[in-house]
Amino acid sequence: AATRTPLGLLDIDSLLGEEERDIASTVRRFVDTTLRPHIAEWFESGSLPRDLAREFGRIGLLGMHLDGYGCAGTTALSYGLACLELEAGDSGLRSFVSVQGSLSMFSIHRFGSEEQKQEWLPRLASGDAIGCFGLTEPDFGSNPGGMRTRAKRVGDDWVLDGSKMWITNGSLADVATVWAQTDEGVRGFVVPTDTPGFSASAISRKLSLRASVTSELVLDGVRLPASAELPEARGLGAPLSCLNEARFGIVFGALGAARDSLEATLEYTEHREVFDRPLAAFQLTQEKLANMTVELGKGMLLALHLAGLKDSGSIRPEQISVGKLNNVREALRIVRECRTLLGASGITLEYPALRHANNLESVLTYEGTSEMHLLSIGKALTGHAAFRA
Ligand code: TGC
Ligand code: FAD
C-alpha cells in the first residue's frame, strides 16, 4: 500500500498537480526500465555512454525548465521532480542533466546572444550536442572569484589561457561555457571544444560519481571571435546565478538517492530474517526506518516549498542554500543508515545504498560545499560575509 512507502506515508503526491505527477512517473519509468539495469555496470566501469544524451533529449529532460529553442518550458517543480527521479537511479544521471540544462544551456539562454542561442540551444535540448560549464580551477573551487584563467583582447578577438578542473561532461562536450578574468572583470565565453588550443582529459580513479565523466580542461591560446563572449554576463554574479539553477535541482535530486536507498532497505528488512524474525520487526530497525522517513518527508516538504518560491519568481540564493545544505546532508545520513541495515549485502552493487552514499560525497562538495551554504545562510542572517578572513 502507498502508506507503506516512505513518501506515501505523508501522501506527498497529493501536493502535486496532475502534470507534475505525470512527469515524475514518466521519468521514474524511464529510469527503472531503460537505465537502472545498466547503472551498476556504468558505476563499476566508471563510464556513461554518450548516447544517453539523445535518450534524455527524446523525453524532453534537457533544459526542460527553459522556454523556446526546443526546450520543454516546464515548471521548476517539474524539473525538480525529474531530478529526483534521475538521482533515484544514480547521481551521475542527474548530474548529466543538471550540467546540460542548468549550467550549459541556462548560461547561454540567460546571458547569450540570439545567434548563440540559435546555434546551440536546439542541439543541446535534443542531445545532439553536449555542453559543459567551466568555473572551478585547480586552486579555486569555493572561491571562484580568484580564478586565473584569463581572456585577453587581441584585435577584435579574444584569446583564452588557463585551466578548469573537475568539469562534469568536460571530455564529452561539444561546447563549453568557460568563465575567465578580463580587464573588465569576469566574463563568460561559448567555446566549441574543437577550437585549436582547447583540450579536455578525463579524471580517472574516482571513488564517487563514477557513472559520470569528470574532466580537466586546458585552454592554451584559444582564439575566439568577439561573438563568442556571452554579451549579457557581467561579473562573478553571472556564473553564480547559473549555480542557483543547478543547486535547485540538487535540492530535489538528493532526495531521490535517499528514497531509492530507503525503499530498497525497507523491502530488505521485511525479507531478511535475523534471530528468527524479520529484521523489520525489531524496534531498533523501526526507529531507523521511522527517523529516515521523517527526514525524507521533511526534505520533500522543503523542496516543494522552494519550488513554489522558484515558480513564483521570488526565490533568493540563501533559500536555495537552506535546501541544498539540508537535503544533501540528510540524504547522506539516510543512505549511510540504510547501509547498516543491509549488513554485508550493503557493501555490494546489488543494493543501491553505498553507491548512493559514495555519490553523495561529491554532491555534498560540488555546487557549493556544505560549509559555503552554511556561510551563505550566516551572511543572510547577520549581514556579515564570513567567507574571508
Ligand atoms: P560575492 O562578493 O559574495 O558575490 C559576487 C557577486 O555575485 C553575486 N552573487 C550571486 N548572484 C546570484 N546567485 C548567487 N548564488 C550569488 N552569490 C553571489 C553577489 O551579489 C555579487 O554581485 P555584485 O553585483 O555585488 O558583484 O562573491 P565572493 O567571491 O565573496 O563569493 C561568494 C561565494 C563563496 C558564496 C561564492 O563564491 C560561491 O558560491 N562559491 C561556491 C562555488 C561553487 O558553488 N562552485 C560550483 C561550480 S559548478 C559545479 O560544481 C557543478 S557540479 C554539477 C553537477 O555535476 O551536477
Ligand atoms: P575547496 O574550495 O578547496 O574546499 C576544501 C574544503 O575547505 C571544503 O570543506 C570547503 O568547504 C572548505 N572551505 C573553503 N573555503 C572555506 C571558508 N571560507 N571557510 C571555511 N571552510 C572553507 N565545477 C565546475 O565548475 N563545473 C563542473 O561541472 C563541476 N563538476 C564537478 C563534478 C564533481 C564530481 C566534483 C567533485 C566537483 C565538480 N566541480 C565542478 C567542482 C566543485 O564545484 C568544487 O569541487 C567545489 O566548489 C569545491 O571546491 P574545491 O574542491 O576546490 O574545494
Characterise the protein shown here.
- With 389 residues, this protein is an alpha+beta fold.
- It has 10 helices and 9 strands.
- The strands form 3 sheets. It has a 4-stranded antiparallel sheet, with helices on one face.
- A hairpin with a 2-residue loop joins strand 2 (150-154) and strand 3.
- The longest helix is centred in the middle third of the chain and has 35 residues, at 237-271.
- The termini are far apart.
- The chain binds 3-thiaglutaryl-CoA and flavin-adenine dinucleotide (FAD).
What key phrases describe this protein's structure?
389 residues, alpha+beta, four-stranded antiparallel beta sheet, three-stranded mixed beta sheet, 10 helices, 9 strands, globular, binds 3-thiaglutaryl-CoA, binds flavin-adenine dinucleotide
In short:
The protein is 51% helix and 15% strand. The chain has helices at residues 18-45, 52-58, 76-89, 91-111, 114-126, 237-271, 283-311, 317-341, 353-365, 370-382, and strands at residues 131-134, 150-154, 157-168, 175-182, 185-192, 198-202, 214-224, 273-274, 277-278. A hairpin with a 2-residue loop joins strand 4 (175-182) and strand 5 (185-192).
By secondary-structure content and strand pairing, the structural class works out as alpha+beta
Uncertain residue segments: none
Q: Approximately how much beta-strand content do the residues carry?
A: 5-15%
Bound molecules: 3-thiaglutaryl-CoA, flavin-adenine dinucleotide
- Measured as a percent range, the helix fraction is 40-55%
Over the alpha carbons, how many angstroms does the gyration radius reach?
21 Å
- The topology string of helices and strands comes to HHHHHEEEEEEEHEEHHHH
How many helical elements?
10
Mean pLDDT: 97
Query: How would you sum up the global shape?
Result: globular
Q: State the strand order across the main sheet.
A: 2-3-7-6
Q: N-to-C terminal Cα separation, in Å?
A: 54 Å
**How many strand segments?**
9
Largest sheet: 4 strands, antiparallel
